[in-house]
Design goal:
225 residues; mainly beta; Elongation Factor Tu (Ef-tu), domain 3; Double Stranded RNA Binding Domain; 2 domains; 6-stranded antiparallel β-barrel; 3-stranded antiparallel beta sheet; 14 strands; 43% strand
């Protein structure tokens, strides 16, 4: 089954499986999340869904107009697209009585409908969760790239967490692009794949394992390919 939804990380906890094993869990709140648009290869060159999530206060007029066009009265804070090409054959565009939408399995969703995890995901299914990892500021190579560091003895008083040599003495005589060095750590778009859905409801998902991002941050959830 193919499922797509936006949510935010609410809390970390733990749960006991049927075999008596304790596992970490993450609860993702998904309401309110609406289908705002469907892009098709014939008109746009690719197949994707546009979703809106989370109630906001101040949104710009272009976004507000897009939400009203979809027939949604809630002011949505986040708008994101999900590409559908990897799920070819599982999701199909449909149009009934002038309304455009999609067909996922036996479920019909039209533009303006609210998405609920209980209809898009099922217990035991694998999902991929994407978020922005926590920012950790400027860090050295030992913490950022797990470097071993220099020797602790033989007069090396200031080499313990140093990166060591970074270039050459001869041609090309420069530092290569992408060299692992000290710098800002975190704040990257990160995806954790094949997490198991432990439970679903109309308002959220309970996921086995931990996902990237701070509490309250935006999470993109889709079925594993």
């Amino acid at each position: 089954m193919a499922g797509f939804i936006l949510g935010k990380k609410i809390r970390h906890s733990q749960s006991i499986t049927e075999k008596g094993i304790r596992v970490p869990t993450t609860f993702i709140q998904t309401n309110p999340c609406y289908l705002l648009g469907v892009k098709t290869p014939e008109k746009h060159g690719y197949f994707s869904l546009k979703l809106g999530f989370d109630q906001g206060k101040n949104i710009n007029k272009s976004v507000e107009g897009e939400i009203k066009k979809a027939g949604v009265k809630t002011q949505l804070r986040f708008l994101r697209e999900f590409r559908i090409e990897p799920y070819a054959g599982m999701v199909k565009p449909i149009e009934e009585e002038g309304k455009k939408g999609i067909l996922i399995g036996e479920n019909k969703l039209f533009i303006g409908d609210e998405l609920k995890p209980s209809t898009l995901f099922k217990k035991g299914e694998y999902i991929d969760a994407t978020g922005i990892s926590k920012g950790k500021g400027f860090q050295g190579v030992v913490k950022r790239h797990h470097f071993k560091g220099g020797p602790r003895t033989h007069g090396q008083s200031d080499r313990e967490r140093a990166p060591g040599s970074i270039g050459q003495t001869t041609t090309p005589g420069r530092v290569y692009k992408g060299k692992r060095m000290a710098g800002r750590m975190g704040g990257d778009t990160t995806t954790v794949r094949r997490l198991v859905v432990l439970d679903t409801s109309d308002t959220g998902l309970l996921i086995k394992g931990l996902i990237p991002g701070a509490l309250g941050s935006l999470i993109r959830v889709r079925s594993s390919r």
